[in-house]
Amino acid sequence: MLFAIAVIAKIGHIQFVEGEKWAAMGERISFDYKRVKATRGNIYSDNGSLLATSLPFYKIAFDATIPKDEIFKEGVDSLAWHLATFFKDRSKADYRRMLIDARETGKQYVILNRRKINYQEKKMMMRWPIIREGRLRGGAIFEKVDVRYMPFANLGRRTIGFINENDHGAGLEYSFNKQLGGQDGFAYYQKIAGGVWKPIFDANNVKAVNGLDLQTTLDINLQDVAETALHKAMVKHDADEGMVVVMEVATGEIKAITNLSSDGKGNFSEKLNIAARLYEPGSTFKLVTMMALLEETNIQLTDSIDTGNGEYQFYDHKVRDHEEGGLGKVTIREAFEHSSNVAMARLVDQYFGLKPSSFLAYLDKLNLSKPLGLQIAGEPYPKIKRPGEKGWSGISLPWMSHGYGFEITPLHTLALYNAVANDGVMIKPIIVKSVRKADEVEESYKTEILNRRICSAATLKKLRLLLEGVVEQGTAKNIKGTHYRIAGKTGTAQILHQGRYTRRYITSFVGYFPAHQPKYSAMVLIRNPRGWYQYGSSVAAPVFKEIADNIYARDIQLHEPMSLASVTESDVLPVIKAGKQEDLTLICDELGISSQPLTEEEWVRTARTGNTVNWKKNLQGEGIVPDVAGMTFRDALYLLERSGLTVFYEGRGRVVQQSLVAGTRISKGDRIYIRLG
Predict the structure, then answer these.
(1) Side-chain half-sphere of 441: how many Cα atoms within 13 Å?
(2) DSSP assignment letter at 168
(3) In 175-253, which ranges are E strands?
């Protein structure tokens, strides 16, 4: 009896003394404001193609207390049949029993099926019995759930990236999450039987603000070309990882970027951002070595360097060339074109061995010693040793000269080569053009200059000559022979594993095209290809060429329209604009055209005065580039080669363009490219 009295007393105390306290707690447990996710913004390619979007999906639930008896009784059988036919997970009888049980027990929130339905399916369901009466009369509850969708499937998946429910992720989705994510709202929910939260319409609900859209620089067609070419090479060489980046020279806009990784079973997918991961660049770094040598010393490309048998001792370490037996005594230009490690190491040790900081200053000047400040988060800090730091020794500089002993990202390397193509102006790679709200630009991103002049004009000219030589007669000569010219450098670096260099390699090729008037730069990197010949020339360079060929075929701007040649100009002057005076005079005499020489020079240009053709002096002279515009190919070739230039050409007809400006000084070994039309 005492125990029973105590229980009754406690119940009374809880009910009447602490009643308000427990009622408030029950309210907090049963009702709550919950976050309502904003619709995420879209990601577009450069031409407006949709790369990523949020598609509306719905969960369907039912408030069994809302429909009137006559509506429920009349439609329950038909609704059960529709549910069973559509979802195919239960029978009509099971669905009918679920609906009737919910009605009899007064359930206000019953999940009819946990599968998410799309918008078209939702529209179809809204024609079904009971549901077609609407939310307030039929009791149907459609809860919107946004699902991220990529129309081009896996194309550029790692670059587009992802974001999870904890706001962790990668790629553009993560880096621009603040803009894409919008501002979440809040809504009032009630917790009902089964731990399910039911939305309650409340005046204090805060509406979500949808996210903004991104317009990227990516060209979906070039992305497809790059990924296809890389995938083909990865399969052929059974490689571990591969990467391609294609960039527009003048703007720094990344037009394609793909990263593929192997699962070890012959399948490749985008998992890691290899383009922004640290690596030892190998021979592609020799461009920096040559730049420092040409800027800081008086060496000439025609100077000789003895590479011996392809081995050279630095203290207790040997530098080796990849060519069996070495190159012997060659010019510096040939040493670069054939990628001699010995030559680069000896030259750097000779000229910078006592002042290594002068060499390292070029890494700082070229922005290789710090992050580029890319728009995608996660860019690492380059690892570069300095004199006096742990790990620096007498072999550090010779090893750095050919791309070992430090780490940068592939995008650092590409930005450097792009600067050479861009007349010495180094610009930051960009992948997002603007942030938009519908058609209104909220924020735009312009080309950012990192260095207005990476080196002198004379050095730049020599560097471009070297890079063209690599493809014409050097390590990458296997990719020459196109309708346009490629300039670039091969790279092959041994992979460092647990402090030791292994017989596994990182192969690469980086360059630009067309060489005489660059529009695109690109880099290909393939890690640990398997096979007998694991070099940049045989693994990475062919991928570069395949991509470049595709771009050249697709980009109409790379093909200048052929001018329609007429027989005469104003029925007086033949089309020939310049040439040998004797030949032009003969033509005019044969056609009965009056001509008058204004100079005694052998080579002239034409000028018209009324119906008379005058011969004027052509721009040419000892040691300068002659003006060959308008000349026949035979005349142009004779003049240019007589001036000491090596001539390359494309097209047929007369000269419409020349790569070297007429009147500029000629250096030994210079090449000129002429276009005929």
Answers:
(1) 9
(2) -
(3) 185-192, 196-200, 213-216, 241-248
